[in-house]
Known about the structure:
By secondary structure, this protein is of the alpha/beta class. It has helices at 15-27, 34-47, 58-69, 85-92, 111-117, 137-145, 197-206, 227-259, 289-299, 327-335, 347-362; strands spanning 51-55, 75-79, 96-100, 124-126, 149-153, 161-162, 165-166, 173-177, 190-194, 211-212, 215-216, 264-265, 273-274, 280-284, 305-306, 321-322, 336-339. The strands form 4 sheets. It has an 8-stranded mixed beta sheet, with helices on both faces. Residues 57-59, 82-83, 85-86, 128, 130, 153, 155-156, 177, 179, 190 line the site of pyridoxal-5'-phosphate.
Amino acid sequence: MTKKLIPLAVPDIGENEIELIKQVFDTNFLTEGKFTADFETEVANYLGVKNAIACTSCTTALHTVFECLDIKGKEVIVSDYTYPASAEAIILAGGIPVLADVDLESMNITADILEESYSEGMTVFEPISWAGVPLESNVYKKAKELGLIVVEDAACSIGAQINSEFVGNIADFSCFSFHPRKVITTGEGGMITTNNEEIASKCRSYKHFGAVGSAFEMIGTNYKLSNVLGAIGIEQMKKIEDIIKTRNEKAKIYQEMLNGIDGIKPAYSKKEFRQTFQSYTCYVEKEGMRDKIRKKLSDENIQSQIGTYSLHLEPAYRNMKKVGNLENSEKLFYNALTLPLHKNLTYDDQQRICNIIKETINE
Ligand SMILES: Cc1ncc(COP(=O)(O)O)c(C=O)c1O
């Protein structure tokens, strides 16, 4: 008999989203409009930030910010351990990614790595708060000392906090993702948040064909988020605190179960942080064991994932500028393991998963 499927992720969507989509249909105004604007307001109010600008994805949100900061021909430090989108957005805007290593535990860039990677002439820096783990506060501080504008790829981090301060209101610019594997979803979607009024206006224009009022003042593009997706976003924002609470509760259960298994380091956590656990990513210490565990989980109808990519190992990124040997990024690429985490995941499911991990390691 086939064993019960445990999916990696399940979006928290339902009747409320459908009801609001119906209201959008009733207006006959499906493109970006009032519902998108209301979603932006919800996000801005939640984070306490002045501007929230909806885009079609986190990738297009990042691209919009980089275009409006004019990074053409400039080097931009970015974590090597990330999804390609982070570097693609730099390249789309004519910038040059400089791939930097991350900390093996937090999986994020550190102030020391930033300092080592910095060189004269850089103006913009793109850290990633990966998996919903905030950056260390001293990363923002170091960037400021170096005179760098911080554009945070916060794809995984809506709702994350450092000492109760929201990610999205700390960096100069933060970009979020609403892809279905993220904390909240609109199917596909993204958001820029910033307190910089001047660049915010530019971003609003850029994503809307370069329009300012009825005039096209710059060359832009179309990254507008439709009212249909905006409506989903409004309903998702009503649930965000419950979603994060549930994710943290289930993450805590994993921490306890995995703590008892030799050879596994549970996901990173820190007292000062409220994490989103967008991905529950642990670390398998023995080389080659991560893939063995993934195979066993898959045989038992349990979905899992790697962590994310080590960009310099991917064909399109092999010749890009790198800082150091990117050793931690490589280790994470080969050994990090993301486990299922969603509202339907039961205690028994978590026990089943952790038992399989333990058995595989002890074989
Ligand atoms: C760190 C990071 N940045 C950006 C993205 C891309 O987000 P989107 O799919 O909204 O463009 C992802 C997607 O997984 C991601 O993990």
